[in-house]
Amino acid sequence: MRKLILPNLFKPLAVASVLGVLIFSCQTSNENLPFDALSELAVVKFANGDIIPGKFIVVLKPSGLALRKSMGYEEVQSSMRKTTVSLLAKYRIAESTLDQVYGNTIEGFSIALTEEQAEALANDPAVSYIEPDRIMGIAQKGRPGGGGGSTGQTTPWGITRIGGAVNYTGSNKAYILDSGIDLDHPDLNVNANAGFNAFTSGKDSRSLDDGNGHGTHVAGTIAAINNSIGVVGVAAGAQVVPIKVLGATGSGSYSGVIAGINYVGATGNSGDVANMSLGGPFSQAVNDAVVAAASNGIKFALAAGNESQNTNNVSPGSANGTHVYTVSAMNSSDSWASFSNFGNPPVDYCAPGVSIQSTWKSGGYNTISGTSMATPHVAGILLLGNINTDGTVKNDPDGTPDPIAVR
């Protein structure tokens, strides 16, 4: 593996820096902005998958830090920050340029660097590889409406297709790596105390509440309560935990997503489930973090993506490992959703992803489509136990029909 994964990176930086001036023309210097403020503004102007100018993810060679079971999440984070600061000092790189640090899955950090600094770090014997940070977004097809209320409980067709809802009685949790969750939605059992926010400044940092709606929709498919209102989820009533890595725009950074994976890997228990209905271009760092977190017994459900392309081109959908499941989408006739990514491997199962009704922000409900919607069906099944199958999806474009997941 190349240590500096920067294909055609520095040529686009000239254009990106001009865009940065346009975005931040009211600021005296981009370098003086907090990283999350940079990302929060950038997602408005940059598309999903775009490189964040001057921002990098540095992955170190494993030291065994994450294997020290006597150390909690905060202790590991503190130890990794000290290690990182020491490494940066060798190259006279200011600590103020450091953003996220990771120690419980991959070991590494995200940081602002010049081209020369990135090349110098890549040649350090402690560094495994470096790649550019990017914008990552939700794996939803189309733009949703504003949502609406509900007067009586209905069972969405996708829940019926995977075998129906079950009132969850276990103690495991569903971590939702997404835009947050509507914290006081009457149809969800939200455990905000176990949550995590990758944003450390700006409006998205102020709460784990969902300013977009996407994370709440995912949570409802997994675990909406079996009551007299709204909808019902696969593992009805299970705890859903907001891991806020995407903002109100539905976008975030790869570095922030890895921070969320790192937190789940550190605090989750074997049998817990993590849902990642998001994605962007291939990232070795994102994939490595998912596989490392899943090795702890946490089950990861990953969206294949909605670009009608091979899933091996995207992350985290291309991640492969024990307890890692990538999900494509189908409609109510068991036919392939035209937008869904494909490829075996890494796709493991197909699930309902067209016209899926679920919970929404502000106590509402909404019907939307995407592999984002297919993935939580599988996450709910995983929370209940093992995945079974019932036939295969029709018209799979790769010629190897994906098995349809059921409980």
TrEMBL record:
Superkingdom to which the source organism belongs: Bacteria
Annotated ranges, domain Peptidase S8/S53: 176-383
Keyword Protease appears in the UniProt entry: yes
Domain Inhibitor I9: 55-136
PROSITE patterns documented for this protein: PROKAR_LIPOPROTEIN, SUBTILASE, SUBTILASE_ASP, SUBTILASE_HIS, SUBTILASE_SER
Catalytic residues (UniProt): D178 (charge relay system), H214 (charge relay system), S372 (charge relay system)
Keywords (A to Z) from UniProt: Hydrolase, Protease, Serine protease
A Pfam family it matches: Peptidase_S8
Cell membrane recorded as keyword: no
Family under the similarity heading: Belongs to the peptidase S8 family.
The protein's name: Peptidase inhibitor I9
The species this protein was found in: Algoriphagus confluentis
Taxonomic placement: Bacteria, Pseudomonadati, Bacteroidota, Cytophagia, Cytophagales
